[in-house]
Design goal:
The protein has about 300 residues and is α/β, with parallel strands linked by helices. The protein has 2 domains: about 140 residues, Rossmann fold, CATH 3.40.50; about 120 residues, FAD/NAD(P)-binding domain (3-Layer(bba) Sandwich). It is about 30% helix and about 20% strand. The chain has 10 helices and 15 strands. A 5-stranded parallel sheet has the order 3-2-1-4-15, covered by helices on one side. Strands 6-13-7-8-9 form a 5-stranded parallel sheet. A 3-stranded antiparallel sheet has the order 10-11-12, with no helix packed on it. α8 links the parallel β8 and β9. α4 crosses α9. The longest helix is centred in the first third of the chain and has 15 residues. About 35% of the residues are buried.
């Protein structure tokens, strides 16, 4: 429980992702007057994207909690238009907090990265861009795995439907078979997906220690090919040309999805600093490492405790 503030401030927060939501709610709980800006029509940011991944539906409840608390605490919401430096400066806030998140990185060193077959992960997860039946995903971090699960899912909501989950993993809840096991029932995935990374280590090595094996196993069941140590040579009409261990190879894919990292989104930060305003950076705008909602929420809450 955060202690009530002794000095009520007007605070402007830009970005309604996990960091911005955590800060806005915590600061309002302490008694500050908080205004939360976001260019999107609804709050959520990366949480709103993550909740669309099969198995991550729990983020719906996270967002429901934050929407409820924002309303209960009378946080002012200004959604649907990007906040500008001029606007924020004119508002005369006592404190400004930027939780503007990240922007996907497009690797300029890949010839053909601007080919029509190339999509970013936001095009796929957020914008619903059409994806072909044969797909190469470049980048095998958490986002790459999420995109692979999203594209190979049949829409049967296995994580929310116990009978479907049990059938997929070969669980016999009635113990008609020895050990409560039965032959798994796995329908063919809707796409053929290849997951590639430049690093030579194990694909998915950076996933959670207790859950990473589940994601790797699930994708193997879905026939996803995982390739480490790949050098991306060219993307053209024939597909993805790459090299592994000196051997040139071609994947004749319809779609290439970039999951090749993120950069902090700080253009507004620079514009505000040029005006001599002090600004706090949190979340992906501060450190654009592998997206981590837990870290973002912790950072937002801790900053609110200090103001």
């Amino acid at each position: 429980m955060l202690a009530p503030t002794r000095s009520r401030k007007r605070i402007g927060v830009v970005g309604a992702g996990p960091a911005g939501l955590a800060f806005a709610v915590s600061a309002a709980e302490r008694g500050h007057d908080v205004t939360l800006f976001d260019a999107a029509e609804a709050v959520g940011g990366q949480l709103d994207i993550a909740r669309r991944i099969p198995g991550k539906e729990e983020f719906d409840e996270t967002l429901r909690y934050y929407r409820t608390r924002l309303a209960e605490l009378a946080v002012t919401l200004r959604l649907g238009a990007a906040a500008t430096a001029e606007q924020l400066a004119a508002e005369g806030f006592d404190e400004l907090v930027l939780a503007t998140g990240v922007t996907p990185r497009t690797p300029a060193d890949i010839p053909g990265v601007d080919h029509p077959s190339v999509l970013g992960y936001l095009d796929v997860l957020r914008d619903g861009a059409p994806v072909g039946e044969r797909v190469a995903i470049l980048g095998a971090g958490g986002i790459g795995f999420d995109v692979a699960e999203f594209l190979t899912d049949r829409g049967d909501a296995a994580s929310l439907n116990p009978p479907v989950f049990q059938a997929k993993w070969g669980i016999d809840p009635d113990y008609r078979e020895r050990g409560g096991l039965r032959r798994p029932e796995r329908p063919a995935p809707p796409r053929t997906v290849h997951l590639l990374q430049r690093k030579t280590g194990k694909v998915g090595a950076g996933l959670g220690k207790t859950t990473g094996w589940i994601h790797r196993t699930e994708l193997k069941h879905r026939g996803v090919t995982m390739v480490a140590g790949a050098t991306y040579d060219l993307i053209d009409d024939a597909g993805l040309h790459f090299t592994v261990d000196g051997e040139r190879q071609l994947l004749p894919v319809d779609t290439v999805v970039l999951c090749t990292g993120q950069e902090p989104r700080r253009d507004l930060y620079d514009a505000l600093r040029e005006r001599g305003l002090e600004v706090h950076l949190i979340g992906g705008a501060d450190v654009a490492a592998e997206l981590d909602a837990k870290r973002a929420i912790k950072q937002g809450t801790e900053l609110a405790a200090t103001l």
